[in-house]
Amino acid sequence: MAPRLLLSPQQFEITIHRLCRQLIEIHDEFQDSVIIGLQPRGIYMAHRIAKTLEQILNKPAGIAVGELDVTFYRDDFRRKDLVPNRTNIDFVIENKNVILVDDVLYTGRTIRAGLDAMMAFGRPKDVELLVLVDRRFSRNLPIQAKYIGKTVDTMASEKVKVEWKETGGEDHVWLLTQD
Amino acid sequence: MNKKLSVKHLLGIKDLTADDISLILATADQFKEVINRPIKKVPSLRDITIANLFFENSTRTRLSFELAERRLSADVVNFSAATSSVKKGETLIDTVNNILAMKVDLVVMRHANPGACQFLSRHIDSKIVNAGDGAHEHPTQALLDAYSIQEKLGSVAGKKVVIVGDILHSRVALSNIFCLQKLGAEVMVCGPRTLMPRHIESLGVRVEYNLRKALEWCDVANMLRIQLERQDIKFFPSLREYSMQYGLDMNLLNSLGKEILIMHPGPINRGVEITSEVADSSQSIILDQVENGVAVRMAVLYLLAGRTDD
Q: The pTM is what?
């Protein structure tokens, strides 16, 4: 089956802006809040959200963004070959409001690992989850996102693919059927 | 890049491909970040039990392996020959099989006999990491040396590395030669003729007997320890003479007119192969090597324990 377009570049941008407005409602000027993107693909979302927030709030480079790799905390070690990515968090999250960011929320296992991995950097005051796409009804763990770009109903045989301007090309979200 | 190692055990660098080495170094990079966190531990190997079998004395390697294992959350059991049934005449296979019967997933072994790990790998059903076998190989040392060079100079390929000292008795030298060559470096060995193995040039290394000439050629000098415990017969007249011919001091280092990296696998005989000033100078990366050793060993254990097909 041909890939189905879930978000066009224009809808993509509207979605990012809406998520930023929702964040500002809760986090005000981001004085006690930080953003952490999950490797490998959540980091594009995290940086895009931060950049947009900086524009809206007129705070150039005023928002702390980190990149967190969860490979060493995953529960499928020895079931899959797992290659780690870079973790880059140059701030402490002690007593901060942390917004965990990923591109697609599916089983919830990556987020579970992310919560564990994050604790190595301190004890946050509060943790929220933001995702671009929520694959509803496919969770293995009791994890839900607070901020959701788009909710989709999918089957296990389908795959959600997010493309980023940052990796060459345009912003798109596709639903693919795997054979 | 490959996602897994081509080998089931780490017996020697000779068995690894260049891709394997690159994968280990890239993984070590991430572990180096982990061990510099406020909380230095990750849960990856929480269901793995590792036995450290040291049939020969070691402080640094053993400590480094144990730290690496604990930071990966593995369960660790230690064994040293001095306090074991080996003294009562038990064979190597029996000793190890008894330990494996207690459900151990991975064995880290140091043994005085070259090839002890290869031998064991044919007889037991567990993953093995060689932590030094006689004068044969010491693969994790070579990997951490390569990692340290890469960290300081950007890459190993194209660099000129001289290994100075007791090449004959050194497992570090052999593993380093294999590792550096696979990564595309040029390797030279330098030392007294009596401590130079015959036909060493057949490994594709340059041979130099004059330390100054060797240092003028190189970007990195790896100063090996004179292994006093392996000198059953005299290979040179006195330590003082060795140190005058092959010892590195500040005068020699400053007269080169360029900066080179100084490495040493430890433990240092201060005043023999290098003087204290050199060991503590800004060109020395000896303590970086020790720190990197933990990260590299974490990478090796993680990649071997995580293999999916066994």
A: 0.89
